[in-house]
Amino acid sequence: MKSPYDTHLDRNKANYQPLSPVKFLVRAAAVYPNKTAVIHGSKRYSYAEFYTRSRRLASSLLNRGVAQGDTVSIMAPNIPALLEAHYGVPMIGAVLNALNIRLDAAAIAFMLDHGEAKVILTDRMFSSVIEDALKIASNTPLVIDIDDPLDQSGELLGEMTYEAFLEEGDPDFSGIPAENEWQALSLNYTSGTTGDPKGVVYHHRGAFLNALGNTISFGLNPQTVYLWTLPMFHCNGWTYTWAVTAACGTHVCLRSVDPALIFPMIEEYKVTHMCGAPIVLTMLIHAPSEVQRNFEHGPIEIATGGAAPPSAVIEDMEKMGFRVTHLYGMTESYGPSTLCAWQSDWDDLEGEARAAVMARQGVNYITLEDQTVMDSETMQPVPADGETIGELMLRGNTVMRGYLKNPKTTNDTLAGGWLHTGDLAVMHEDGYIEIKDRAKDIIISGGENISSLEIEEVLYKHPQIMEAAVVARPDEKWGETPCAFVTPIDAKSGLDEAQVQAYCRENMAHFKCPKMIIFSELPKTSTGKIQKFVLRERAKAM
Fold first, then answer.
1. What is 442-541's CATH topology?
2. What are the pLDDT digits (tens) for 479-498?
3. In this model, does residue 509 exceed pLDDT 90?
4. Which of 71, 82, 135, 472 would be a feasible disulfide site paired with 480, CB 3.0-4.6 Å?
């Protein structure tokens, strides 16, 4: 028998509209047309101007034959053009592909071909690598140059400049609303892996919801001043490109992550929020004393992702006037998907005890359906004992559609109705998860599992160590042993291998201590993640 609720209560335009983050800008421009939306050097754009520029971009792309489902690539640092592309491109149903600005020509060429880019917007700072990429690529997109007054170091490659391109567009263009919220919105290539990167496809619904999750979790509001220390190309800026606009806050653009720029900008613009990988926190902590500032308007909220920041880093940031929120996510989950939600009974915790609870990855975002830690073979949840290790898995509306043109890997990654993260974690009694390692980063020595993160946590507490990374090194007797790569705060400090090993033996079980200490700079991805696969190869060769 048919339910009465299934009769004469159909979906129609009055009660259903596909969710899309583009609508955030439409609303912000209507509610706060004169409010400063974007700051870039001496430039200021109101929300009305931000919306108009995005509409011009959308109209110009449409006039050049870009249609729903076509890819528009952009190679740019955190500047207004990249922010505008997050609205102008999906405004016509096209798919935004924000390129990693640290990649070489071969990688860029692969992405232009794989994503079938119809247009590439490129900041002239990167004209050399883009020129080389276009020579390699079989695809021939329309090239538009972004001629940013703050950096005009490169040549002009394209048919015209970005500003001239905008002039072709209609400032009153109303856009083409998404027909389906499952429609592709953006294409983000994974970083830090070997081989060809995977193209992660986002949809309008997921971006809308994850942006609102950020807004709620990070306390964004119309008074928010957000400094762009996080690359906008990384998971679309963890969807903060849309979240800050949803909150009607102010975007402060930043071409490069430099403490000498960051500290005065925080002071001048009264920055309230920022994000970054743990490396950004480390840079701020170890900035020269003449660069560092004390802020009267704090605390400044800073969200960090990836591996848990060492407790020493959290403590040092708090001393400087920052309040750290630890997030977890991956490209496949639109960036942040879990957070370490603060509990009132933690208020009285101090020092290491406080940092220990803050370093956990925590609970799922309000916009994520569920998270769990399971045995990846049996697909059964592990006990919530804080000890039993399993694989962290996620599911919900903020999980990717899949990998472009890669059905097998898509099916494997989403097998059993869960996103398999590849991260090893425990579930605590209170429901908070804590990542212990990447599956590939766990060290098995003499049959014992050793967490590289646990060793790194100890190393970061050493007063003379700025950065540390631990990987497995093949060993004839033990199978594997820990090998530590260390960057001292001061290269002239005289810190040596024997001193570091002695420190480790004093602070952890001896079987966990690194058998080899190597002093060097740590290789990183453009998003600040340490490239452990590079270090593993180095360790293997020694």
1. GMP Synthetase; Chain A, domain 3 (3.30.300)
2. 789 999 999 998 888 899 99
3. no
4. 472
Select the CATH number that applies to the domain covering 216-438 from these four: 3.40.50.10540, 3.40.50.12780, 3.40.718.10, 3.30.70.100.
3.40.50.12780
Other CB atoms within a 10 A radius of the CB of residue 95 amount to: 25
User: Would you say the C-alpha torsion 461, 462, 465, 468 has a positive or negative sign?
Assistant: negative
The residues, any chain, with a CB within 8 Å of residue 399's CB and separated by 6 or more, are 206, 332, 333, 334, 414, 419
Encoded tokens for 347: 């208020």
**Helices and strands of the chain, counted as H and E runs:** 17, 27
Order of all β-strands in the sheet with 402-403: 160-161, 142-146, 117-123, 71-75, 95-98, 184-189, 199-203, 402-403
Angle at 203 (CA atoms; ends 59, 118), nearest 5 degrees: 45
- State how far the Cα of 102 lies from the Cα of 104, in Å rounded to an integer: 7
Same fold, 216-438 and 442-541: no
Under 8 Å between Cβ of 89 and 57: yes
Q: Identify which of 82, 98, 94 has the alpha carbon closest to the alpha carbon of residue 335.
A: 98
Q: Which fold has domain 47-177?
A: Rossmann fold (3.40.50)
Q: Which two tokens stand for residue 529?
A: 């993640």
Residue 367 pLDDT? 97
Task: Give the torsion sign (CA, 413, 417, 420, 421).
Answer: positive
Summarised one tens digit per residue, pLDDT across range 390-404 is 999 999 999 999 999
pTM of the model: 0.86
Task: Provide the 10 A C-beta neighbour count for residue 306.
Answer: 20
pLDDT level of residue 193 (50, 70, 90 thresholds): very low
Token pair for residue 463? 């007063």
Strand intervals (E) in 318-432: 322-330, 335-339, 363-364, 370-375, 380-381, 390-395, 402-403, 419-427
Name the residue ranges covered by the structural domains of the chain: 47-177, 216-438, 442-541
Angle between helices 278-285 and 311-319 (to 10 degrees): 50
